[in-house]
């Protein structure tokens, strides 16, 4: 399988088809929606951070162990990692191509999954098992 080289002439000509239009649209919408959700959750996150400021570990565990706090934070963590993966995808698309791009995207995806799973597991442990 050969890598397609996109030239300046192809990009400048609006009738030239390059890239996957459906995937690009999905990526654009996902990035905007996750960004909007991050902004909406910012107030909630600030509340939690201010509530935990100066508290010791048992108080932190009791606040984060509350289902009304811990479960939305777990959902926020998933949304943030999706947003992070898409943002890094933009950077990787700009600077890398071919098999190196695919390798870096795989590593990016695995890192984001690792962060999401570890964070959600920790929050769910606090919520359900203290």
TrEMBL record:
Species of origin reads Devosia ginsengisoli
> Pathway of this protein?
Carbohydrate metabolism; tricarboxylic acid cycle
- The protein here is known as Succinate dehydrogenase hydrophobic membrane anchor subunit
Which GO cellular component terms are attached? Answer: membrane
Oligomeric form and interacting partners: Part of an enzyme complex containing four subunits: a flavoprotein, an iron-sulfur protein, plus two membrane-anchoring proteins, SdhC and SdhD.
Looking at the UniProt entry, the stretches that span the membrane are: 35-54, 60-82, 103-128
Topology in membrane: Multi-pass membrane protein
The UniProt entry, under Gene3D superfamilies, shows: Fumarate reductase/succinate dehydrogenase, transmembrane subunit
- Role: Membrane-anchoring subunit of succinate dehydrogenase (SDH).
Q: Which UniProt keywords apply?
A: Electron transport, Heme, Iron, Membrane, Metal-binding, Transmembrane, Transmembrane helix, Transport, Tricarboxylic acid cycle
MF terms in GO: heme binding; metal ion binding
